[in-house]
Design brief:
The chain is mostly helical and 208 residues long. Helices cover 74% and strands 0% of the residues. The radius of gyration is 18 Å and the shape is globular. The mean pLDDT is 93.
Length: 208
Amino acid sequence: NDFLVHWVGTKSFIKEGISPYSDQVALEIQDLVYGRPATSGEHELRVAYPFYSFFLFLPFSLIENYSTARALWMVFLEILLIFSTIITIKVVNWRPKFLMLFLIMVFSIFWYHGLRAIINGNAVVVILFFCILCIYAIINKQDEIAGICLAIMTIKPQVVLAVIIFISLWSIRNHRRKIFFWFLGTVTVFILLGLFFLPNWPIEFLRE
């Protein structure tokens, strides 16, 4: 259902110009999931990501058939999990043999936290990828890339706030301020880009 929420929200904005944060969109999503509006105590299935996450879901929302869009999104998440695993192995400077590498790849997709995220279509896999890429960039002194990755992670801020604060403070303390300024600059561009398409999105987002 995580993907469904953002697929419908993005699709509604593209095709009808309706805010993804609106009650109308929420009711449409609830009708698809429950067959009726959500009752008291049920998850309301509202869009609760910053508006610029719209660009992540945009290519998939252009696909009319939900099953096809969801299948492609799941494949996308599986690929990101594999790349996340490869980058993590590089971060710790480990060189496993081919069989071990293959088993780790399989494990990365089929263990609970990987498989559950894929089934739900949860964007947390995207966050994981950019978090690991950020760390890899920091190690290799690619501070601009690290800052951009940190900014992309804000598409789901509630799960990475502590990580973002930690890396930002670390970069300032260790005279790697370029990471923080690239992060700040990229987030500013994202926010302004969102304002261009939906001028009041920050208020609607904060309300959600």
